[in-house]
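Hi everyone, sorry if this is the wrong subforum. Our group has a chain we'd like a structural model of before ordering constructs, and none of us has done structure prediction before. Sequence below.
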Amino acid sequence: MSDLASTKSNSVSRWLQTISTYDFCPEFSAKVRRFLYHPFGVLMLAALAALACGLFLHAQGFILCGGILAVILLGVIWPWLAMRGVVAHLAFDRQRTSESDAVEVRLTLHNRLPWSAWGIAVRDGFGDDQPVAGIASAPRRRTALCRWTFQPLRRGVYPLITPRITTGFPFGLWDNARSVTVDTPLIVWPMTLPVGPVPLVSGNRQVEGNVSRNKVGSNGDVLGVRPYRRGDSPRRIHWAQSARHDRLIVCELQSNARPVIQLVLDADSRSHVTNDSREWAIRIVASLAKGWLQSGAMIGVTWGDVEFEASSGLPHLHRILDALAAIPDQSNKPLADVLACPKCRGFRDGLQVIVTTDIGITNMDHRSDEQRWIVLQSKAFDDNALSPLITVQPWLLIDSIERIPTLLQGGWREAQHGS
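Answer:
Right subforum, don't worry. Here is the predicted structure as tokens:
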């Protein structure tokens, strides 16, 4: 009986301990903790304690309460007055950059008031809760120029949200903030890596251009000879062979052609085990678009509801990279729906390269010989992830983050043996 009573007593004690430590309102508790751990909350509790002493113990408690309230009032009014006449403008030294490239940021502070603003900090907009920069003071009735270096570690359009200048001087009890005007946002492109040669595009799925391919055309190097056909240029007649065979023989010339490639990005956040996997998929698409455009190919890109027709040139590359930089963190259009859109379903001009994961490729069938699948394995980005069965033969399998630069340069057949 004693053992049974002891067991029941221990159970009740554990139950009471669980009830006493369980947080029934976590959001409210978090707000209370932030208030109590802040100097403003500490002073308010001190003022209430002094008021209680004045009411129940001695009248001198009212003097102490009044002194604490005066400090609180000064700590709130001073920052508010200091920021009334401060106007801030923020600018970058360039309009576009890439991940991890250093950029100079310029902040212009104009103070119209006859007193200085002290202890100014720049917050928000740069991907961190911590202050971006600190300025000692904004002199009275003057304009101050501040510079610092910003190194974006992730693609995007910066500032991500409207930045603010704040000050809590002199006591740090309350931060008064003013919005900062941004002259021109900074577009941070995804990081790009060198890639291998343009894959072979079979048949006649090419357009005329300036990249020499092993295809008969009207200019380029001589591939061979053939009998004259009506309409051939006299300049292409091979006179020595014509005299030998007693009939007109013309030269077959190499075609200068541009292969047409459509890049399809699986930006669905549900296809990626981590955000790092999604970012690397975006970087891979950016790398292929940049490398193959510079090699003379015509590149089209599509993801979600965004579609770029196949084109070429530096402005086209800038438009693609700008759009990739602005992809939102949450995108829920499945890859199957992207491939079913008219632009993808009706693509017949060349090669279609699809960048996805082993999760996004699940239950998808190989639809065409002109499709190439670049598959990112989930285990490469999360050791605890379970990689599903891949139902499509990958053209390029990304099985390690460290190997991505090597795989992009020589991971497929054309890169290993040449186009």
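For your construct planning: The longest strand covers residues 206-227. The radius of gyration is 34 Å.
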